TrEMBL record:
<dbReference type="InterPro" id="IPR018060">
    <property type="entry name" value="HTH_AraC"/>
</dbReference>
<dbReference type="InterPro" id="IPR009057">
    <property type="entry name" value="Homeodomain-like_sf"/>
</dbReference>
<protein>
    <recommendedName>
        <fullName>HTH araC/xylS-type domain-containing protein</fullName>
    </recommendedName>
</protein>
<dbReference type="InterPro" id="IPR029441">
    <property type="entry name" value="Cass2"/>
</dbReference>
<keyword id="KW-0805">Transcription regulation</keyword>
<dbReference type="InterPro" id="IPR010499">
    <property type="entry name" value="AraC_E-bd"/>
</dbReference>
<dbReference type="InterPro" id="IPR050959">
    <property type="entry name" value="MarA-like"/>
</dbReference>
<dbReference type="Pfam" id="PF14526">
    <property type="entry name" value="Cass2"/>
</dbReference>
<dbReference type="Pfam" id="PF12833">
    <property type="entry name" value="HTH_18"/>
</dbReference>
<keyword id="KW-0238">DNA-binding</keyword>
<feature type="domain" description="HTH araC/xylS-type">
    <location>
        <begin position="12"/>
        <end position="110"/>
    </location>
</feature>
<dbReference type="GO" id="GO:0003700">
    <property type="term" value="F:DNA-binding transcription factor activity"/>
</dbReference>
<keyword id="KW-0804">Transcription</keyword>
<dbReference type="InterPro" id="IPR018062">
    <property type="entry name" value="HTH_AraC-typ_CS"/>
</dbReference>
<dbReference type="GO" id="GO:0043565">
    <property type="term" value="F:sequence-specific DNA binding"/>
</dbReference>
<dbReference type="InterPro" id="IPR011256">
    <property type="entry name" value="Reg_factor_effector_dom_sf"/>
</dbReference>
Amino acid sequence: MANPGTYEGNIQQALHYIEERLFSSLTLDEIADKAHMSSFHFHRMFQFVIGDTVKDYITKRRLSELKDEVLNSNINILEIALRCRYNSHEAFTRSFKRCFGISPKAARKNSIILPEYPPFEGRVFTENFSIAPVSGPRFIENPGITLMGISADVELSGYRVSRDIMNIWKLFFSKLPRKTGPSRFYGCCRMEGKTKIHEGEVFNYFAGVDTNEVSDPPNLYTEKTIPPHRYAVFTYHGPVRRIRDAHKFIYANWLPSSNAQIADDFSFECYTKESRPKELDSYSEIWVPVTCHEASMLHG
């Protein structure tokens, strides 16, 4: 049994909680609470180490547990759908088909053998990087900063994340006054509000610049204040479109091996004019809010 209080133990506790209440109405907040983490940071770590979003993992587990009823019983499909927390036959069918590649009606009619999705077992943190994709961290007391930019909710689901964030930045730059030449750009993430798992998982993304660098902000821009906090700051050299690899290293490798506890506050990326989507020598920073107790240091 993993040691409770460690990242390994906390994620295992969350997995156990999911299994105990698999067919209950679960929220991301309550699952994250079992791991002693905020919803956003828990979801990010969970996805990197388990390989699925929390929603997708629970969906696969529920469907796997009920697939025998779909295949080998005369129970109405809608009744099974309701047990699986779906409000309609159509929604259940879409989810079932995404999971197994066939509709429940066709699977039952043709007695199809469907794959199993058993509970996750074994150690959670097994990822090893031969070369760290980031250097650092250095620990900085951020005094707080007020930003001006564009905010939107983004669904935490596969390719949509990158696509939606890219669209936010496109809108941001299309409205940025031409005479403005900010030296730094900020992409801030945080999950706000309780979300039931079957309703989807979203977080708020904010693309902006320091208010001092925008003299005449357009009406579409809003303010966002990042409060004072201590941050572990990582330097990433590589194309911005691959920055997810850096986040995976931080959440799946650095945090579990350090003495740093991730804090419930904004996580953000800082870009400069040297940050480019495709260029290998592009420079960016990743700021992760932490509470450190003689945190282990990794030097690039």
